[in-house]
Design goal:
Elements: H1 9-20, H2 32-45, H3 50-80, H4 91-115, H5 119-131, E1 133-138, E2 145-146, E3 152-153, E4 161-165, H6 166-174, E5 178-180
Antiparallel strand pairs: 1-4, 1-5, 2-3
Helix pairs in contact: 1-3, 2-3
């Protein structure tokens, strides 16, 4: 990592301070979050004893809280702004906003179908969502199950990865029997 890209607790603090003191989005280097991740990751890997370990843990906690604060401040500025400058958005922030945009589109789709009497469309959406496939990782053994799509799945061992209908996946996740696996294109 080059000297100009290094992040430490002081530079992180200054970045958060600059962001809080300004009404518009501050310009941040495109690799900021990745460099910050490297900084926190390297801190976590270091092993110390006694007081030095407490200092390290406190620095990790401070960096974590400052990072969370920075992301929330920047996203709040964007959501409260009618016309924001996308050139100052980092790729990671665009990723977050993309999901919010999709949520807004889905909300409008459901609202429109509801107020325009398109109950068959709503029924179709609901049914398709129930059987939409989701990738999960099993945390414990599970016998064969019948999916919402009436197909058989399993049996599964702990740590198995499977693609099953959303409705079944949600039930297993709620019971802490499985966890969702996120795949990004």
């Amino acid at each position: 990592m080059s000297e100009s890209n290094q992040i430490d607790i002081n530079s992180l603090h200054n970045t958060v301070l600059r962001e809080t003191e300004n009404d518009s989005l501050s310009e941040i280097k495109p690799t900021f979050y990745r460099n910050l991740s490297d900084f926190i990751g390297n801190l976590r890997k270091q092993e110390f004893d006694g007081v030095e370990n407490k200092i390290k843990d406190t620095m990790i906690e401070m960096a974590t809280e400052l990072t969370s604060l920075l992301i929330h401040i920047r996203l709040e500025k964007i959501s409260n702004s009618i016309d924001y400058d996308t050139s100052h958005l980092l790729d990671e922030e665009k990723f977050i906003l993309d999901s919010q945009e999709e949520q807004n589109e889905r909300t409008e789709m459901i609202l429109s179908a509801t107020i325009n009497g398109k109950s068959k469309f709503l029924e179709s959406l609901a049914e398709n969502h129930k059987i939409k496939k989701v990738v999960i990782r099993f945390l414990s053994e599970v016998d064969e199950i019948i999916g919402a799509d009436l197909e058989k799945y399993g049996p599964f061992k702990a740590e198995d990865i499977a693609t099953i209908p959303y409705e079944n996946a949600q039930a297993l996740i709620a019971k802490n029997i499985a966890s969702k696996v996120r795949w990004e294109d």
